[in-house]
Specification:
Pfam families: DUF5753, HTH_31
Organism: Streptomyces catenulae
InterPro entries: Cro/C1-type_HTH, DUF5753, Lambda_DNA-bd_dom_sf
Protein name: Helix-turn-helix transcriptional regulator
Strand order of the largest sheet: 3-2-1-4-5-6
Distance between the termini: 44 Å
Order of helices and strands: HHHHHHEHHEHHEEEEHH
Helix content: 40-55%
């Protein structure tokens, strides 16, 4: 999204002689949330904007001119990646591919090979490195708490071929077996489910409101609206209720891995 809003907020804060922390205290928010708004990574809720107007004496400017979320641009994931690093809880849903923080190098590279226009080897290498860097958040044994909800189609589509898929699924299984993540599979025979329309990542934080990230064909956007985040969480909860339990999901994933290994 355009950062005109965030830059204007920063200008008015500085004109008022306030630090981000002082504004946060006055508006009953958090410093990190103010920082994200000023940097253009988050859009305040209407209530937050109203309190910012009161704190800065700007009438109803900030609440009346909230930017529309038009973050579906080429570098659409940049802001979401910053939020991902700060999240204490992440809930992922994958309908067509393994979520990024769980991808292996071979799997990520196979996905990049499908790009159009085609990417150069250097571009693919850079992307793979970025994906693996994202996965480093799992090096912390406790945070963020991660739950991955996977459509069975993610496991059955042989991205990169049998060997790549066997390695990829085994990687997710290992993370689940050591307790670093939870993984649940939505089986084919369930039929329709509430999350069929696309990819979803939900994030919770210690010091700012929760956010969601949705992604489509070369587009993606962060969703800040509390009402929309609640709706997406409701859909996630319903889908989770229909998914296979943890141990049954792991058993299925191991069986699929063995099938790939036999054909590798």
């Amino acid at each position: 999204m355009s950062n005109i809003y965030g830059e204007w907020l920063r200008t008015k804060r500085e004109e008022a002689g306030m630090t981000q922390q002082e504004l946060a205290d006055t508006a009953i928010m958090t410093r990190s949330h103010i920082a994200h708004i000023e940097a253009g990574r988050r859009v305040p809720s209407r209530e937050d904007a109203r309190r910012l107007d009161l704190a800065l004496g700007t009438g109803d400017v900030l609440s009346s001119f909230l930017p529309e979320d038009d973050s579906a641009i080429a570098d659409h994931f940049a802001a979401a990646r910053e939020l991902e690093k700060q999240a204490t809880v992440i809930r992922e849903f994958g309908i067509s591919m393994i979520p990024g923080i769980l991808q292996t190098a071979g799997y990520a590279r196979a996905i990049m090979r499908t790009a159009f226009p085609p990417w150069s080897d250097e571009e693919c290498d850079s992307y793979v490195v970025t994906r693996l860097e994202r996965a480093k958040i799992l090096a912390n044994p406790v945070r963020p708490a991660v739950c991955a909800l996977l459509d069975e189609a993610v496991l059955r589509r042989p991205v990169g071929g049998p060997s790549v898929m066997a390695e990829q699924i085994a990687h997710v299984v290992r993370l689940a077996e050591v307790g670093r993540i939870r993984v649940h599979v939505i089986p084919f025979d369930l039929g329709a489910h509430p999350l069929m329309q696309g990819v979803l990542t939900m994030m919770w934080f210690e010091d700012q409101p929760p956010a969601a990230y949705t992604e489509g064909m070369q587009t993606g956007k962060i969703i800040d609206s509390p009402a929309m985040v609640d709706r997406l969480q409701g859909s996630y909860t319903l889908a989770m209720g229909d998914a296979m339990p943890l141990q049954e999901s792991i058993t299925l994933m191991k069986a699929i891995t063995e099938e790939y290994e036999r054909h590798g």
